[in-house]
Amino acid sequence: MPRTAKLPSILAADDDVVVQRLVAHSFEAAGLYVTVYESGKALLDNVNEDTLVCLVDMVMPEVSGMDCLRAIKKKFPNTEVVILTNVNDASNAIEAMRQGAFDYLTKPFDPDELCLSVRKAMQLAKASRENEGLREAVNSAPSLGSSPLVGDAPSIARILKIGNRIAKSKNSVLINGESGTGKGVMARYLHSISDRADKPFITVSCPSLPKDLLESEMFGHEKGAFSGAIQKRLGKVELAHGGTLFLDEIGEMSLDLQPKLLSFIQERTFYRVGGEKQHEADVRIIAATNRDLQQMSQDGGFREDLYFRLNVLPITMPPLRERPGDTLLLAQHFLKRAAKREASPAPSLSVEAAQALQAHDWPGNVRELENVIERAFTLREEEDSIQGEDLPAELRAAKSQASTATPSLAGKTLSEIEKIAIEQTLEHCKGNKAESARMLGISEKSIYNKMKRFQSGS
Ligand SMILES: Nc1ncnc2c1ncn2[C@@H]1O[C@H](COP(=O)(O)OP(=O)(O)OP(=O)(O)O)[C@@H](O)[C@H]1O
């Protein structure tokens, strides 16, 4: 018999009654609605195109988790499947990932990790219904050597929404944001959901070359154009023909080269260095910067006309400290990625480590988080978990400062402690109730109800 059935978006199947209960409780506590079945067959009888995610035990009599996975993916490719396995079943789990499972978790599972994984799977399932092409972007587009775009903060969701429209346009995009916020990831994502996705995505890193070489890097050169130009070389503009040219750190481009780029954007024509023949290339420009180009153009450091041409479709990547809910999501993602690379189960994050990650300000944004997690994964003391001590000292210090700032909870009632936790989380999330709910592991509705109760003093 199904245990809970409010919304049909998540289905689960496990033949073990204890696991059935645990799954139902974990989801309920996280504000997610699930219907739990006692067999793979019962689940397959009930799955339909509205099902976002199925959580299936790998080993079940008659219809196994793998059978469920194959049947679901064949009939409902936009339904995501998360597999539950035993620790010693890693090779099957890897096979399941190859067959299109979204994720696998080993038993005994951590309820937070389970809910996080299922939420991510739901996010992907919803997004791929809106846009079939998104799957590649979220699950990684190997041909681009890119990262998937992970994040479900409202600010990121808004960007993804406008991103779907921006991707279809031919106009230039300017991605602003602090270093490490994922401007490059966003550029690849836009390319991967555009109708140029099967054409090249070529990056030019503007600060990496002296200005003369940058012109040749972009537009190519003819043989003998300068000493060292022993043969003709195609530029990145030509290599990107039909696709996207990503100009990283455009604010570093010299004023001498900027008119040539402007002319290319306007006319789609260019000359190779040392050449007299005009060439054409059909290229969509995406530029990124961590500098204030508008201010630079007012101060004369960047051409204003080029700024306007680039800034037709602006996107701003929010810093990680403004989307604290994404910190753990990204941390889990980097852990899973590292674990998959080594074909081992992903270690969990201890409460202490998770708190330290959330207390940190992340001046280096996602790149800094990625490095911290990679380091912790490699140096961890315990095989199956990341502890506070596995993190760099400055993160542990930030956490202990945060905890000394917390008022003592001794002598308070549970209800008072709950109130403090909710108020502090809301403050941490700048009043964002959806993010706070996710962090606290309760539903947004529970936050509203509890706040109402606190206000009425009951
Ligand atoms: N949303 C995200 N999901 C997954 N990985 C991310 C995300 N955002 C950033 N990263 C990872 O963080 C690192 C930095 O990202 P990226 O290079 O895109 O940032 P950037 O803003 O372009 O940085 P810079 O301004 O220094 O060039 C990369 O390794 C990238 O894979």
Automatic annotation (TrEMBL):
<dbReference type="Pfam" id="PF00072">
    <property type="entry name" value="Response_reg"/>
</dbReference>
<keyword id="KW-0804">Transcription</keyword>
<dbReference type="Pfam" id="PF25601">
    <property type="entry name" value="AAA_lid_14"/>
</dbReference>
<dbReference type="GO" id="GO:0005524">
    <property type="term" value="F:ATP binding"/>
</dbReference>
<dbReference type="GO" id="GO:0006355">
    <property type="term" value="P:regulation of DNA-templated transcription"/>
</dbReference>
<dbReference type="GO" id="GO:0000160">
    <property type="term" value="P:phosphorelay signal transduction system"/>
</dbReference>
<dbReference type="InterPro" id="IPR025944">
    <property type="entry name" value="Sigma_54_int_dom_CS"/>
</dbReference>
<dbReference type="InterPro" id="IPR025943">
    <property type="entry name" value="Sigma_54_int_dom_ATP-bd_2"/>
</dbReference>
<dbReference type="GO" id="GO:0043565">
    <property type="term" value="F:sequence-specific DNA binding"/>
</dbReference>
<dbReference type="InterPro" id="IPR003593">
    <property type="entry name" value="AAA+_ATPase"/>
</dbReference>
<feature type="domain" description="Response regulatory">
    <location>
        <begin position="9"/>
        <end position="122"/>
    </location>
</feature>
<dbReference type="InterPro" id="IPR058031">
    <property type="entry name" value="AAA_lid_NorR"/>
</dbReference>
<dbReference type="InterPro" id="IPR009057">
    <property type="entry name" value="Homeodomain-like_sf"/>
</dbReference>
<dbReference type="InterPro" id="IPR002078">
    <property type="entry name" value="Sigma_54_int"/>
</dbReference>
<protein>
    <submittedName>
        <fullName>Sigma-54-dependent Fis family transcriptional regulator</fullName>
    </submittedName>
</protein>
<dbReference type="InterPro" id="IPR027417">
    <property type="entry name" value="P-loop_NTPase"/>
</dbReference>
<keyword id="KW-0597">Phosphoprotein</keyword>
<dbReference type="InterPro" id="IPR025662">
    <property type="entry name" value="Sigma_54_int_dom_ATP-bd_1"/>
</dbReference>
<dbReference type="Pfam" id="PF02954">
    <property type="entry name" value="HTH_8"/>
</dbReference>
<keyword id="KW-0805">Transcription regulation</keyword>
<dbReference type="InterPro" id="IPR002197">
    <property type="entry name" value="HTH_Fis"/>
</dbReference>
<feature type="domain" description="Sigma-54 factor interaction">
    <location>
        <begin position="149"/>
        <end position="378"/>
    </location>
</feature>
<keyword id="KW-0067">ATP-binding</keyword>
<dbReference type="InterPro" id="IPR011006">
    <property type="entry name" value="CheY-like_superfamily"/>
</dbReference>
<dbReference type="Pfam" id="PF00158">
    <property type="entry name" value="Sigma54_activat"/>
</dbReference>
<keyword id="KW-0238">DNA-binding</keyword>
<dbReference type="InterPro" id="IPR001789">
    <property type="entry name" value="Sig_transdc_resp-reg_receiver"/>
</dbReference>
<feature type="modified residue" description="4-aspartylphosphate">
    <location>
        <position position="57"/>
    </location>
</feature>
<keyword id="KW-0547">Nucleotide-binding</keyword>
